[in-house]
Amino acid sequence: MSFRFFIYYCALWGGWAAFLGWIPGRLVTIQRSVVATDGIRGMCLGMLVALGLSIVDSIWNLSLRQFGQIFLRVTIAVVVGCVGGLMGGLIGSFLYTKTTWIGFIIVGWTFTGFLIGTSIGVFEILSSLVRQQDMSGSRRKLVNGMLGGTVGGILGGVLFVLLNTVWVGLFKDKTRDQLLSPSALGFVILGMCIGLLIGLAQVIFKEAWIKVESGFRAGREKILTKEEITIGRAESCDIGLFGDNMIERLHARILKRGNDYYVMDAGTPHGTFLNGRQVSRPELLQSGDAIKVGNCVLRFGERQKRKQVQGI
């Protein structure tokens, strides 16, 4: 999946997931407690949006054959998303009912967006802790998700409130002046904004990435967030290149050491090539370098700002 399609699917799935979260939320009514009702409705939104975005993120980063990892990623994201939606709904509704200032609704949705964004990076942080690996890439993904989710929550919350104001003005239905108003459209806009901004933040603030230029599923792009990225035909490889007999199950690795990235061959009979030269030891990667394994060509990219700082 390319970066462009990743952003597109984040927005699309965010909108559809929010709509699906609106359906059960609309059926929930807790007698004598508007705040609790809105909390449950927010929880439905957070749960479904986190579910949708974590599935997109998992498909982008993993092979569908890695079902165990996908399940763990999605489960953790859904739990965090549930908490975010519940807390956002409770906070926004409680403050709004106490003050009637509609800006507190935006505050609630901002908190929800923040935790949905957080949910996308929690798995990488936990995985790095368990494996005792460098967490800089995982932290960057977590922070980017938080930033995107927060901005998406603010933008979606503002549009949500504006749409609510227009709705009430047109239909004079004051009962709709609640956290859930004005029906499914408000939730869809909110979910799309959160998904769109999370996807944008991940792509805009990426540090290093790989693009498959030729070979299996050409056009794929993957952000490097781990200390070690494996390349090969095995289902467990981070970059799976299937259907090429010249590629071994574990063919090559991309290693992060400090602020630098290196490529190394895994002792394969056909070898790994960097810019046409066979790799015999770990080779430092520069932005634009071509890595050839079997009949597949991978293009390495990274933010130039980091290199400029090193050169000072």
Protein model, in words:
With 312 residues, this protein is of the alpha+beta class. Helix content is 57%, strand content 15%. The protein contains seven helices and eleven strands. The protein has helices at 3-27, 34-61, 67-99, 103-131, 136-171, 184-204, 304-310; strands at residues 208-214, 221-223, 228-232, 239-240, 252-257, 260-265, 272-274, 277-278, 283-284, 290-293, 296-302. It has a six-stranded antiparallel β-sheet with strand order 2-1-11-10-7-8, with no helix packed on it. The chain has a five-stranded mixed β-sheet with strand order 4-3-5-6-9, with no helix packed on it. Helix 1 packs antiparallel against helix 2 (34-61) and helix 4 runs antiparallel to helix 5. The two termini are 36 Å apart. Mean pLDDT is 84; it is low at 174-182 and 305-312.
Summarize the structure.
With 312 residues, the chain is an alpha+beta fold.
Keyphrases for this structure?
six-stranded antiparallel beta sheet; five-stranded mixed beta sheet; 312 residues; alpha+beta; disordered C terminus; elongated; 57% helix; single chain
What topology does this entry show?
Layout: H1 3-27, H2 34-61, H3 67-99, H4 103-131, H5 136-171, H6 184-204, E1 208-214, E2 221-223, E3 228-232, E4 239-240, E5 252-257, E6 260-265, E7 272-274, E8 277-278, E9 283-284, E10 290-293, E11 296-302, H7 304-310
Parallel strand pairs: 3-4
Antiparallel strand pairs: 1-2, 1-11, 3-5, 5-6, 6-9, 7-8, 7-10, 10-11
Helix pairs in contact: 1-2, 1-6, 2-3, 2-4, 3-4, 4-5, 4-6, 5-6
